[in-house]
What does this fold into?
Amino acid sequence: MIEQTSKSDKRENLRKGVYVLPNLITSGSLFAGFYVIIASTDGHFERAAWFILLSAILDGLDGKIARLTGTTSKFGVELDSLADVVAFGVAPGVLMYTWALKPFGKLGWLAAFIYVVCGALRLARFNVQVTTVESKRFVGLPIPAAASIVATCVLLFYELGGTGTIKKVSVVMLVFLLAFLMVSNIKYLSLKDPDLFKRQPFMMLVAAIIILIVIVAQPEIMLFTIGMVYMASGPIGYLFKRKKEKQSVEVEEEREEVAVESDSA
It folds into this structure.
């Protein structure tokens, strides 16, 4: 009886319809990701890279608009995850393969697949842990950030002249590094942290304006730099945390030794 009621409720929810605006934006992100695949296979790598960044912007907007307008839904969450697999998993994988990994043959497309499957695993873990992990931190490198790093790497390459064979080896290394970071337990700052949107000191606004101006002046270089800094922030923070924990353990051990010596005296 309970099962029948549950199924009836689900059918009733579908009859009520879905929220158009946030899901339309999510569909736009999915469209951009699909176009990345088309542009990559046609050899338009720069255009494909820009569309990955467009997809990342749309992906950030749909959730915020849904929360602001009170139109969040389970349907939207599921659609967003599926769109992310295409836009930030399959699309960057195809871009990397057609742009730099194809000369490696089987090793090249296997490397691209490793990126795709690690991205899918990252999304699946996020969906499972979304209610149990603190909102201020992501566990593992977010897949939109990984895809954006791939895109800015392509843009920087063409900004610097678009020649050279070093890109092949460097992209292979980048693929494995991004794949590892996505499925790792290294924590990254979440841009969904509500504290980031609260009142901030006046100088924060000035700094944000300066950064925006610099990005507009040299978007390819600055976007790549920002992506690499964000990617490195996770491992650096992890190392600092481990060092701090080690120092805390050493201090505690010293206190215990002093206490033992005092008791024996």
Q: What stands out?
A: Confidence is low (pLDDT under 50) at residues 1-6, 8-12. Residues 16-264 form a domain with the Four Helix Bundle (Hemerythrin (Met), subunit A) fold (CATH 1.20.120.1760).
